[in-house]
Structures are given as C-alpha cells and as structure tokens.
Amino acid sequence: MELKSIHKCHGGLLSYYSHAANTTACDMGFTIFIPPQANEEKCPVVYYLAGLTCTEDNFTTKGNAYKLAAELGLILVAPDTSPRGDDVPDEDGWDFAKGAGFYVDATEAPWDKNYNMYSYITDELNTLISDNFPVDKNRQGIFGHSMGGHGALTIYLKNKDKYKSVSAFAPIVSPSNCPWGHKALGNYIGIDQRSWANYDACLLMKAGENAENEPEILIDQGLADPFLESQLMPELFEKACSEVGQKLNLRRHDDYDHGYFFISTFMEDHIRHHANIL
Length: 278
What we know:
single chain, 33% helix, alpha/beta, 278 residues
C-alpha cells in the first residue's frame, strides 16, 4: 500500500489518500490525529470504523475525540467505510456497496475485486500506519459505530494479537440475524450462511475459549435508536459474552438515537476506555 498525498492538514490532524493495491484496488482516504506526545515517543493508536453511508470525515468532524486524545497521547485513525471511484461497482440504495463495505472480504463477483475492507483495515492500512507514523504496534485498539461497531468487534475477536482493546456505539452484533447483515453478507460472501459466522460477533464470541481474563468491552446503546430491535439487538451479544465469561459494560441510554450527538456525548468514555487498557 502506497501513501500518496496529504489532502489537508490542520493542527495534529492529517487527511491522506493512499493506494490500496492488494485489497480495494483503488485510492482510499483516511484521517490520522497525531498528539503532541508523539514528538517524543511512540504512542498507542486506536482505529475508528464508521457506519453505513459514512466517510472518514464523519468521525473527524463530529466525533469530539481529539481534545482528550491530545491530553492522553492517543493516535486516532479514521478510514473510509468502503472503496470508491468510477470503476468500483455500486448498487442503488444506501445500505449496500459504496459507503457500506461492512468490513468483510468479499468472495462474490463483482464485489470481490474491491470490497475487501477486512484485509484493508487489518493488513494494508495497519502496516501503512505502523511504517509511516510514530505508532507503538504493541498498543493498538479499535472501535466503531453501527456497521463500524460490527467491524470493530469482529476484527478484535479475530485479531487479539494485534488489537488489545475494543468498544462500540450501537453495533450490529449479529448480522446473521438482521436485514442489514443478510443483504451485506449474502451479496459479499454468498448465500451459504455457514460462511457468515466468520463475520458475526456473537458467533465469534461463543466460538472462542473462556474469556474471563480478557479486557472489558464497552458498548453504548441509545434506547430511542430506531434500529435497536430490528438491526442491532445488543442483548444477543450480552448473552454471548455471558456464556464465555467475557466482561461487558453494555450501557443503555434513554432518549438517545443512532446519530452523532449520541456518539459525541459518550466519546470521552470510549477514549478513556482505550487509554486505560493500552
């Protein structure tokens, strides 16, 4: 993966375009925040994965994360949610294809050439960040919102050697059991639902060994979220964690919906959660 150019720069926040040759086969955008402590030493890094329809700019402009990250010495990376460009296949609608990569590696045509966001996040982008910025590779965390919460949980559960902390806002915890997941996984990796287990946080959690000694997972969920019952179903992840002894802090909040006012309200707790572990 080649780091191509800086798109814009203000303070410790940089916005890049890079060419992900081996995964998405197109230019991908991401932002990275570098705290002042990085002038003296390598710092822990936390990746934020955004939700459906978003780009890297949603977290960057609305997340309210950088002041505390600067105080605590955390590098924050926010990638786009999918490949983009005229040569990338797309579909009408907002919950599939561009803006909705679902953090999987697609195996079905025509999506398999470009829609390989799992490998992009865990391999190409991770290597690029480690090679070009003052990152402590032994202290990496990951979090996200909605589709990005799904991505963060599944990536963490499959890569605990790489990511040491995880949290999520209103995550899709069981795509095998919701319409968004059926559409995404059915198109990206095929209709055989046995293959979906590799991208289902509940199934990955239950398939793991005893998790009593693993770090706590933090999840915030708004109870006025219109997707709560049909798409998110956090109680399924709560049950999966209890079966293997995984410590889970699942906080339910009255009157909060699915948007960035909800996310920005509780962002400080998530930043501190990762800083305390890393």
